[in-house]
Fold this protein.
Amino acid sequence: MPPTTPETLVREHTVYACVMGSRAFGLATEGSDTDRRGVFLAPTPLFWRFEKPPAHVEGPAEEQFGWKLEHFCELALRANPNILECLHSPLVEYADATGRELLELRDAFLSRRVHESFTRYALGRRRKLEAEVRAPGAPRWKHAMHLLRLLTSVRDLLRTGTLTVDVGDRRGPLLAVRRGEVPWPRCETWMTRLAGEAEEALVRSPLPAEPDRRRVEDFLFRTRRTSALSYG
């Protein structure tokens, strides 16, 4: 097959596409960007060359980012917060047969590993916010809002076994944080409480200890084989 550019992989081989960011979280305000994320299935013959398909592609549109299917699944099995939320976006723009099967696998990626991955990510963000306050100054309130959203999300995921992306009726309090209307000490207390509640939820979580790696691998094998045969 002829050479394929990264942009072509996104334009012609995307299997799943969604909107993420504030619009998916239910936190969009006037002027919010539209962040688009997707997954592409690189044709199997491209792997037979010295230069392999990229793991991810930025663009071709503004605020657009896509992952190669295999890489996306690897990150999801590691409970990467951004990837898992992408799989659970309420704003799906496109899904072909492969994309729909990927969505049907959402529960296979969920496990108690989310506690470590989400809280580690949240801790890194919190340290940056605390450094901004010590500067001295004020934290980036938008980042504080999203940190609280993330901590709430993982707590509820551990409690229920279901990942819900849209914040629902928590929109008002979270937007108040974004506007800087909630003092930083109150935000810190809020964050600490959510982290503690997530720790408690881990003990009784309905989630399995590990993701269903075999089920995901079977999906990848069948998908890759089908791609190879279609170019035979």
Q: What stands out?
A: The mean pLDDT is 94. The chain has two domains: 6-109+211-230, 113-203. The beta strands are 14-20, 35-40, 56-58, 64-68, 92-95. The radius of gyration is 19 Å.
